[in-house]
Design a protein that fits this description.
The protein has 11 helices and 16 strands. It has helices at residues 16-38, 60-70, 88-91, 97-106, 123-126, 140-149, 169-176, 215-222, 284-300, 315-331, 347-359; strands spanning 4-7, 43-45, 52-56, 79-81, 111-116, 131-135, 153-154, 182-185, 196-199, 206-209, 227-228, 238-239, 276-281, 305-308, 336-340, 363-366. The chain starts with a strand and ends with a strand. By secondary structure, it is of the alpha/beta class. The strands form 2 sheets. The chain has an 11-stranded mixed beta sheet with strand order 1-8-2-3-7-4-6-5-9-10-11, with helices on both faces. A 5-stranded parallel beta sheet has the order 12-16-13-15-14, sandwiched between helices. Strand 14 (305-308), helix 10 and strand 15 form a beta-alpha-beta unit. The protein folds into 2 domains: 4-222, DHBP synthase (Alpha-Beta Complex); 231-366, 3-Layer(aba) Sandwich (Rossmann fold).
Length: 367
């Protein structure tokens, strides 16, 4: 299969003629992508979080093709993307007042909500669950694609399963060229980490995957309590304090017996670079000192080393660049990555650390 590159980049500057030409080219690209989706094909599309891999959410064959293209376990549910609220009636009959408040506050945007699904939604889209995850992305290209296709679009991240999520169309091409029908070319993702996933099927709304929309923001909108799913805390970091050999046991989610995950990223290995990765936790001075020492140690062993030293003062930059930096390390043949932890007591920091810990195989050194 040859993967088409469809230029959907929207104009930001230029002459009137140039901007009109770009809009015309983008409209044609979106129209061609919509036709592919209507025929049951797969198209990668931009969102504000990461790039997604789209197929018709109500077509079981399209859902199966998504899993096959990504090499994704079939019990890992897909998020369904919509462009207008009335599309929810195709997916669920259980939209509460709480959900309406959250849609008013955060849609379009990086919040996914889980509802009880209608029978029309294939089990292949939901990973065999009786629930469906839905969000409205905040990206003009993808909103236009959904409207043009007339479909609800199932769309996990557009990467090979387990590798860092893609924040540019080039990342998608590197992973999925030859596996999918087309890629909508657009700009880099603004947020850089996947959406917050909130389960609304229980009495108390529960965050299943942390993201840019925080529990505090959700609680302020609904005027009530929000919980974090205990599965977010099942994995304990392998904490190897500097100068010590002790390695406490890690309990991996893959080893936990239980039902299929209700949201993407809850069970399987995610975001992993090819290199070995360690996260340093401590004061900035201590982290930088240990990072330099570790880098020198690994380099004397002939390893190519990269350092990802993030700042608590700019969590937005850490979120936006984490996956792209991990992919850069892969492209450059890095063998060993030294990363600095961010403050997990902050809800956005917790979301970033959720991805970093999985990327590093929960390998943390306290310094």
């Amino acid at each position: 299969m040859k993967t088409k590159l469809l230029d959907a980049r929207l104009p930001r500057e230029g002459s009137l003629e140039e901007m009109q030409a770009m809009r015309k080219r983008a409209a044609a690209a979106i129209g061609e992508a919509a036709d592919i989706l209507k025929r049951g094909g797969l198209v990668a599309f931009p969102t504000e979080t990461v790039y997604g891999l789209g197929g018709d959410a109500l077509n079981p064959a399209a859902a199966a093709a998504i899993y096959a293209a990504k090499g994704r376990p079939s019990d890992n549910p897909l998020i369904v993307h919509i462009a207008q609220r009335d599309q929810l009636t195709q997916l669920t009959g259980c939209v509460s007042e709480t959900a309406e408040k959250l849609m008013d506050a955060f849609w379009p945007g990086p919040l996914t909500m889980i509802f009880k699904k209608k029978e029309a939604v294939p089990n292949g889209t939901t990973g065999g669950l009786s629930t469906v995850a839905v969000r409205m992305p905040d990206d003009p290209v993808t909103l236009a694609l959904i409207r043009e296709s007339g479909l609800c679009i199932a769309g996990p991240s557009a990467n090979l399963s387990g590798s860092p999520s893609p924040t540019s169309w080039e990342h998608v091409y590197n992973d999925l060229s030859g596996r999918i029908d087309a890629i909508l070319q657009s700009g880099e993702s603004r947020v850089g980490i996947e959406s917050t996933v909130l389960d609304l099927t229980e009495e108390i709304p529960t965050v299943l995957r942390p993201g840019w929309v925080t529990p505090e923001e959700i609680g302020a909108v609904i005027g009530g309590r929000v919980e974090m799913d205990p599965a977010l805390f099942v994995n304990r970091p392998r904490d190897v304090s500097a100068g010590r050999d002790e390695q406490p046991e890690i309990r991996l989610l893959e080893d936990c017996v239980g039902p299929a995950p209700k949201a993407p990223g809850m069970k399987y290995r995610h975001y992993a670079p090819k290199a070995e990765m360690v996260i340093l936790q401590g004061s900035q001075e201590a982290v930088h000192r240990e990072a330099k020492r570790l880098a020198q140690e690994q380099e004397t062993r002939g390893k190519k080393v990269a350092m990802l030293l993030f700042s608590d003062e700019d969590l937005a930059a850490a979120a936006k660049t984490l996956f792209s930096e991990l992919r850069r390390c892969d492209e450059e043949g890095v063998d060993f990555i030294v990363a600095s932890a961010v403050e997990a007591s902050d809800s956005v920091g917790f979301a970033i650390m959720n991805r970093m810990l999985k990327s590093a195989g929960y390998h943390v050194v306290t310094v």
